[in-house]
From TrEMBL:
CDD domains documented for this protein: ASKHA_NBD_KDGal-kinase (cd24012)
Record organism: Microbulbifer harenosus
Transmembrane segments: none
Cross-referenced InterPro entries: DGOK, DGOK_C, DGOK_N
Stated name of the protein: 2-dehydro-3-deoxygalactonokinase
Length: 326
């Protein structure tokens, strides 16, 4: 196994097992006290697939496969494993929120009644939007904490983060805290419309020009909350009008949705701060293209690396508790 960035494990007094366990995926990384990756496991055994009764047996089986020394490491978990379909429903932590406060609200659990707590679940985060509606996240908060570990003083003072995905998060960082955030169901809406509507028909091929045409078309959505509903149908009518190749409808639709999301997220900002994009290269590439077409500065960060950095931060917070005298 190769060594990972030791900066993320600096200050950890022992090895730890980092687990990002979402609805549809499971990722385990075991690192020793030097930051060396000693074992890893990736699978599609997400929380929803296993069912609540199958979660602990699966986790125990995964830990049993680790090298002997790693089996005793503390386990830090994040994601939907802390939801009401996970191992334990861990209450959301309320924004504004700094990393240390979030760490203090981790839930510690044991596999058996006779075992000392060695599994620790990172809570999700909640906030109230401008309209008073509840906003929630589980899993993304760990990536945000990971980003904060490598941010400079100016970035911690004020930044705008975007975590694209099925339910994209736009996060305001103020004074080193997760100040507020909003959710855009862009990914889920795209999946529904591209698979179950008249807007996308037949075999598709992604086209950057069509995508950017969709981003440009979203401009008319920036002044009206209902304009997107009218703009969506252009994915169909542009084909009929010979302005869009039928195989590029999905790319155009993607640009229209992502463009609308971005314009709403930065609305009211005369000079939006540079957007920090956190996620996989596949999805952040599209957001980067859209932002650059709007002349908005952006920087991309690997979501998996930041999740590991965030889980390492939580492992550092555990060290004093586990080494303090009884």
């Amino acid at each position: 196994m190769s060594a990972v960035n030791t900066d993320i494990t600096a200050g950890v007094r022992q090895g730890f097992i980092a687990i990002d366990w979402g609805t549809s995926s499971f990722r385990l990384r075991a690192l020793d006290e030097r930051g060396t990756l000693v074992a890893q496991s990736d699978s599609a055994n997400g929380v929803s697939r296993l069912g609540r009764d199958g979660l602990l047996p699966f986790l125990q089986a995964e830990i049993a496969r680790l090298p002997d020394a790693a089996r005793a490491y503390p386990v830090i978990l994040c994601g939907m494993i802390g939801s009401n379909i996970g191992l334990r429903a861990v209450p959301y932590a309320q924004c504004p929120l700094d990393p240390a406060t979030l760490a203090d609200q981790m839930a510690s659990i044991s596999a058996t009644q006779d075992e000392s707590p060695r599994m620790h679940i990172v809570p999700g985060v909640c906030a109230r939007g401008a309209t008073g509606e509840l906003e929630v996240m589980r899993g993304e908060e760990t990536q945000i904490i990971g980003w904060l570990q490598q941010a400079d003083a100016a970035q911690k003072q004020r930044s705008l983060l975007c975590l694209p995905g099925t339910h994209a998060k736009w996060v305001q960082i103020r004074d080193g805290q997760i100040h507020a955030f909003t959710t855009a169901m862009t990914g889920e809406l795209y999946a529904l419309l591209s698979e179950h509507s008249v807007l996308v028909q037949g075999e598709q091929q992604f086209d950057d020009t069509a995508f950017l045409a969709g981003v440009e078309a979203s401009r008319s959505d920036s002044t009206s909350s209902g304009a997107l509903l009218q703009q969506l149908f252009s994915a169909r009518t542009r084909v009929l009008d010979n302005k869009l190749h039928p195989q590029h409808s999905a790319a155009y639709l993607s640009g229209l949705l992502i463009g609308s999301e971005i314009r709403h997220a930065v609305a009211g900002e005369n000079h939006p701060p540079a957007v920090q994009l956190i996620g996989s290269e596949r999805i952040t590439r599209l957001y980067r293209q859209a932002l650059q077409s709007m002349e908005i500065e952006c920087h991309c960060h690997d979501g998996e690396s930041l999740a590991l950095a965030g889980l390492a931060f939580f492992a550092r917070q555990l060290a004093p508790r586990q080494t303090a005298p009884a």
